Amino acid sequence: MDSEKDLCNAAQILRTSFESSNLHVTRNASSINAHKLDTEDTDVEEAEGKDPAIIAMEVEAQLKYLRKLKFQFVEQNAKDKYVTRIVSDIEDVPLVTDEDNKQLKLRNEGKKEVLKQAKQRLEDVQAKVRSLAPMVEEEYVRVQQSTDKAVELRQKIIDARLALSRLRQLHPHPRLTIQTADQKLADQVVEMQDITDEIETVSKKVQEVKERLKSGALEMESLRAKRAEAEKNVKIARVDEDDSRLVPLYDWFTASLALHRSMQSLENMEMISQNEIRLRYRIDNPRVQGALVTITLIFVPDSRQLAAADVVGLDELGVDPGDVVEAHIQMNNVQGLLSAILSRARAGV
């Protein structure tokens, strides 16, 4: 309270001395502001064309001059106060005792302590700011990334809503619900299981047919060997057509041909010429039932050498013979060629 009272007294004394001084700056402010340069004796182009550096130097010089005036004013004011205190009556001057000095010293020490604590708190705050600055920066970067991600997700949500609106326009009610989709999925699973079981059954049947064909091919090979031996015996014997020994041979050949027809589903066999024979088979596979496949075999004249083979009807079954025909022609394997083509046609591959 005493320090505030002293400050108020000092401010009041400064105001009184300022008002009693012979300064008329405040009184003549309007006249100073209304002052104009005498442009009659001054060159206008010279006044307007001054260098900004020169103007800055002039302003700096004026500021220095004003600072000097202020210092002189403060100094003169202090001297006036000092002289006033000295020449004034001793009774009017307040006495300054040792007790006042001690109290003033104590107040100054208290203020120093408060100032020291304030500085310490300021240093603590600055240290805390320095330690928290990287964390704040990381948090700012994270928040910025989260903001960017939120903007991106918002755009994606808008796009998804637009896509959903388009789908709703393209597919009006009634739409496929989750329950209907689940039921459809369950039905498809059951259907797939049934198809799988059917495929396994067909595969087993195909395997059984392949086994039967294999055994029939072996039997046919043995029959072919017997036929060749019989033809050889016929040529050696040179018997007439009415010979009774040809009847059993004819019956055996007829039975063999009937067996071959039943096993291979041979519909017709036609001799086109002396070196060309045409075989027509009826094929059943998983895709088509009762399809006709015609195989034309062409031999080299007066020999048993297979020259060419033409297969018709595999396109309807969706079967590609590939290189099977050429490979068996090069090997002169007629039986292998027939077996390979018929097995592929029956398997549907």
From TrEMBL:
It comes from Marasmius crinis-equi. The keyword Coiled coil applies. InterPro entries: Sos7 (IPR037475), Sos7_CC (IPR048781). Keywords: Coiled coil. This is Kinetochore protein Sos7 coiled-coil domain-containing protein. Residues 101-240 form a coiled coil. The lineage of its organism: Eukaryota, Fungi, Dikarya, Basidiomycota, Agaricomycotina. Pfam families: Sos7. The keyword Coiled coil applies. It comes from the Eukaryota. Residues 65-140 form the Kinetochore protein Sos7 coiled-coil domain.
